[in-house]
Amino acid sequence: MIPELGHFSLILALILAFVQGVVPLIGASRNRLALMSVGRTAAQGQFLFIAFSFGCLTWSFINSDFTLQLAAGNSHSATPVIYKITGVWGNHEGSLLLWAMSLALWTVAVTVFSRNLPEIFMARVLGVLGLVSTGFLLFLLVTSNPFDRILPGAPEGRDLNPLLQDPGMIIHPPLLYMGYVGFSVAFAFAIAALLSGRMDAAWARWSRPWTTVAWVFLTAGIAIGSGWAYYELGWGGWWFWDPVENASFMPWLLGTALMHSLAVTEKRGAFRSWTVLLAIGAFSLSLMGTFLVRSGVLTSVHAFATDPARGLFVLALLVLVIGVSLTLFAWRAPTLAGGGSFGLVSREASLLGNNVLLSVACGSVLLGTLYPLFIDALNLGKISVGPPYFETVFVPLMTPVIVLMMIGPFVRWKGDDGNRILRKVGPGLIASVVLGIGAAFAIGHVTWRTALGLSLAAWVLIGSAQILWQRLADRQGAGSGSRLRGIPAAWWGMWFAHLGIGVFIIGVALVGSLNSQIQVKMLSGDTAQLAGYTFTFRGVSNAPGPNYAAARATIDVSRGGVTFATLTPEKRFYEAQGMPMTEASIDIGPLRDVYVNLGDQLEDGAWVVGLFYRPFISWIWFGCSLMALGGIFAASDRRYRRLAEREAPAGAARQAA
Amino acid sequence: MKPRSKRLMLLGGAVALLIGAVALVLTAFQENLVFFHTPTEVAEGKAPTGRTFRIGGLVEPGSIKRAADGLTVQFAITDTAKVIPVTYKGSLPDLFSEGKGAVVQGKMGPDGQFAASEVLAKHDENYMPPEAQHAVDQAQKTAKTVKQ
Asked: Do B94 and A597 touch (CB under 8 A)?
């Protein structure tokens, strides 16, 4: 009964999504207020029905209703409740329902937080979001109904894939989806602006906080996914250039470009066409990410057993979205010409550099991810593109981005004096190169990669200090406390996010240069050495879990004769799926992680043990947290709220006219 | 400078940047493509020597052996028609087991052993790496044509 209610509720949500997608757009084109205002109600209703439907599915999982095909395939009566709940999105159908729910949540957020938008603009935004939602709900109901029954029901479920029975599963997918789907708001704003033919500073200002919040979610989602892969996959790596990782990284790159381009459009009215294209691109890449993950065309950790009809449906949706929006763009682009002019040395020019490079970087990831698919589709053989490609490409593409990142904030809008800028940043640039090379010698790993990485990190740190100092010096007269308080949140957002990149680079450079690992064969009492640490194997005991059996090793880690950690890696065996799994154990520290995993037992009773030393790896995620924090500051800036309020009477007046 | 020549310089700079970046991307791309071959193709000598490539198929039942150091693993990959011996040093994926699909990446050694640097297995019980599936399908298709 409960699943049928959920199914029915999903159908009602589809009807409401369709109403939301069509009626307000008709209202906007005929200027009929009554029709336009339908959008809000329909959006909120749609969210309630999807949430109810999601609740029904979750209820069936918690209560182990194995007449529900999805629960039978992805849950088990002995699974801990939390993983019964996360099992809802640990499969194709449920994760799409989560996708649809995120979209509805974003739509409701728009109706709540952007209440002051002109009615006609709001109607178009909601219309576009409604159409996207219609597409996805249709996809769910037609090809991937989560409420399919099997009669008679299965006596026991097959359980959730053990790799997914992890705390990471609780937050990684929801955050990532909120990020992916969040770009649909930026997309809807861009399409609404194209429809109205009015792409001005106000549009950019409305769009900015939404784009930034979506970017924050995506940043957090990717970072948590990377941390999860680090400890769960048991190889001690943090990024694999796996196609599905790339699928989330591409919208991130383009979304980053979009945030910066929106800044130019808001402040100077320039880059308008480009901003619209980026908004369309970021959302299309999010859709493509969904396609790549859900179609099963790739060999990846994220690939579920799949059905080609689904991939085809998402592909059709993708083609439709890109086709319609680009046609609209081509039609409206001539009205977008103009915008402020700017000089060779100007804030605009430096942001243009940022945009070109980030877009090329995104294009290079796209090439590496899709090319194997094209070759395969054309029957020209099977190929893959490995991490070396991405690493070769990313270092030279990102280096100028990072150099520019610390120059841009010094440069004035419209035009500036090149010599003035050079005098400002020159000393810092030289100092950071010297520091970087010196640090590479100090850690005893002198390669151009390490020296470059450390120089860039030094450059970001020195630059950040200098930018802050400059900002304070610019406001003379007041006391330093009130000068600090006088800095707007948006500025702090920029500062923290850029500083986060610096911290991130320190982590990447040091873990890339200094990491080490060995595999050893150990019997109880054996010791092994790695990077100055001594690992003592204390034997293996049984450690049964709720739905698995496990062998748990105890390994003491000491340095200089002092034991400071006891690690307990496990080799688990999940009964329902008959699947073994390695659970690594990590001693996390601010300057290094010591990471241990347990391999197979050999015939002589010894165990294969993997020992990993990962210096500064937590700085990678610390850097990402700073970036996300920066985004939160930027989006919370008071002027967005103030401007929205000031904008409101003007919008109302336009409406009346 | 006149505004016009400034704009031209800016445009020229952006285009030059773009061309340089694209050239870099394409060169790196050419150098890092990893081709895939089925065990049959490898046995027929169609695989490149001295270059990294991938082989997909099933892990031959009874072929997994550990060397005396306990760390080096030997096994064989088959598409049901031909068998290619593989050596690998490192930890194997959890779901790597005999009779199941796997993809190995590495180079062909002079001794006819494939020295793998990476081993990929499936990630859940229903899922088979597309490359492994492809290799088996190819071999079975050939086998059928031969019988007819």
From this structure: no
Cα–Cα distance measured from residue A126 to residue A333, given in angstroms and rounded to the nearest whole number: 22
Residues found in chain A: 657
A521 touches chain B (CB under 8 A): yes
In the 3-class helix/strand/coil scheme, how is A531-556 assigned residue by residue?
Answer: CCEEEEEEEEEECCCCCEEEEEEEEE
Question: How high is the mean pLDDT of chain B?
Answer: 81
| % residues pLDDT > 70 (chain A) | 93
Q: What is the DSSP string of A2-53?
A: HHHHHHHHHHHHHHHHHHHHHHHHHHHHHT-HHHHTHHHHHHHHHHHHHHHH
Q: A161 in contact with B at a CB cutoff of 8 Å?
A: yes
Q: Helices marked H in A408-447 — which ranges? A: 418-442
Tokens 């799994």 appear where?
A: A581
Q: Which of B33, B69, B123 has the CB atom closest to A383's CB atom?
A: B33
Mutate to test the interface with B, among A389, A395, A522, A607 (most CBs of B within 10 A): A389
Is A217 in contact with A175 (CB distance < 8 Å)?
yes
Residue A636 sits at the vertex; the CA angle it makes with A280 and A409, to the nearest 5 degrees, is: 75
Length of chain B: 148
Average pLDDT over residues A555-578: 90
Cross-chain CB nearest to A602 (options B66, B95, B124): B66
* Mean confidence (pLDDT) of chain A: 88
Of A30, A115, A280, A150, give the one whose Cα is nearest residue A644. Answer: A115
Q: Which of B21, B24, B103 faces A299 most closely, judged by CB atoms? A: B103
What b/e readout covers A443-465, taking b as 16+ CB neighbours within 10 angstroms?
eebeeeebbbbbbbbbbbbbbbe
- What is the CA B113 to chain-centroid distance, rounded? 15
DSSP calls for A207-241: HHHHHHHHHHHHHHHHHHHHHHHHHHSSS--S---
Contact A515, A612 (CB under 8 A): yes
Which of A616, A613, A249 has the alpha carbon at shortest distance from A457? A616
Contact B6 A343 (CB under 8 A): yes
Kindly determine whether residue B21 and residue A357, on different chains, have CB atoms separated by under 8 Å: yes
Tokens 């002109």 correspond to: A118
ipTM of the shown complex: 0.82
Q: Tell me the residue type at B24.
A: L
Residues 6+ apart with CB under 8 A from B147: none
Q: Give the list of residues 6+ apart from residue A1 with CB closer than 8 angstroms, or none.
A: none
Shortest alpha-carbon distance between residue A16 and chain B (Å): 36
Query: What's the rounded Cα separation, in Å, for the pair A286 and A229?
Result: 21
pLDDT at A652 over 50: no
pTM for the model: 0.91
- Residues of A with Cβ-Cβ distance to B32 under 8 angstroms: 385-386, 388-389, 392
Question: Which residues in chain B have their CB less than 8 angstroms from residue A356's CB?
Answer: 14, 17-18, 21
Q: Does B12 touch chain A (CB under 8 A)?
A: no
Question: Count of CB atoms within 10 A of residue A481's CB?
Answer: 8
Instruction: Using CA coordinates, name the residue in chain A closest to B28.
Output: A389
